[in-house]
Amino acid sequence: MKLKNQTIDLGLSGYDELFMTEQERADTRKPKVEELPLTELTPFKNHPFKVKNDAEMAELMKSIADAGVLSPALARPREGGGYELISGHRRLAACKALGMDTMPVIVRKLTDEEAVITMVDSNLQREHILPSEKAFAYKMKYEALKHQGTSSQVGTKLRTDELLAQSSGDSRNQIQRYIRLTNLIPEILQMVDDGKIALTPAVELSYLQPSEQEALFSVMDCDEVTPSLSQAQRLKVPVDKLRSYFRPDTSMKQMTETLVKAMDFYNKHLERQRRDRDAR
């Protein structure tokens, strides 16, 4: 199935222009838009942004069905043939769902680092982004910028996370917090995406070992409770120190369950003391 595509006058977005050659910049012609078969387009490796069948996807599909793909995707040639998609994953999914055979794409030759930076920057412009998406996107771009190092930081004294902050809406410290989320096990990270755990407590939990996180998750999932910031901070205490308060045969799950309940009791005790003081 092929849907009629409208021919429109396309300008270059910032990330396209960034990686143009001097010859391309001097050329007054618009970038070449190719109609590529969907079968030749491969999603970006470890693409951190999810393609969901939600209301936004339904609107995109309706728009494409009515007027075609108005904004071309961006891709780079693959060594083994075909193209790796850099931006336009949702458009690709929508075109496939509509039974289309091709979609408009701008092809650019980019290095691995340039491709990562371009992919992250183009997707961070989206209106709704999950914490996990930001976390892995920032980590990928951080590592790409760090790898570029000698060329991307010439003439500057900025740290890599400061360079990253300059091109995003988050501060250096906030970016570091998001990157910490990549150390969470998938089950707890999903709770962050679902809004069941706030960002700051989640960052504290990211310092726990995976086995400790798994034990904590089993308690939270069973009791349908999540730790507060103060509780999460206390859970960062090294396991070796915690074991001195328990029998040698106590499991990690039992230790975690006991600690969470103890912290709940302690917090309630502090709250009662506060109310007593206010009542005087």
Describe it.
The protein contains 14 helices and 5 strands. A hairpin with a 5-residue loop joins strand 3 and strand 4 (83-87). It folds into 3 domains: 1-112, Conserved hypothetical protein from pyrococcus furiosus pfu- 392566-001, ParB domain, CATH 3.90.1530; 130-182, no CATH class; 184-279, no CATH class. Mean pLDDT is 80; it is low at 4-15 and 150-156. With 280 residues, it is an alpha/beta fold. It is elongated, with a radius of gyration of 24 Å. The protein has a 5-stranded mixed β-sheet.
Provide key terms for this protein.
single chain; about 280 residues; alpha/beta; Conserved hypothetical protein from pyrococcus furiosus pfu- 392566-001, ParB domain; 3 domains; 14 helices; about 10% strand; elongated
Shape: elongated
- Unreliable runs: 4-15, 150-156
- CATH top level assignment of the largest domain: Alpha Beta
Q: What is the CATH superfamily classification of the largest domain?
A: Conserved hypothetical protein from pyrococcus furiosus pfu- 392566-001, ParB domain
Topology:
Layout: H1 14-18, H2 22-26, E1 33-37, E2 41-42, H3 55-67, E3 73-77, E4 83-87, H4 89-97, E5 102-107, H5 112-123, H6 131-148, H7 160-166, H8 172-180, H9 186-193, H10 199-205, H11 210-223, H12 229-234, H13 239-243, H14 252-279
Parallel strand pairs: 2-4, 3-5
Antiparallel strand pairs: 1-5, 3-4
Helix pairs in contact: 3-4, 5-6, 6-7, 6-8, 7-8, 11-14
What would you say about this model in short?
The chain has 280 residues and is α/β, with parallel strands linked by helices. The protein has 14 helices and five strands.
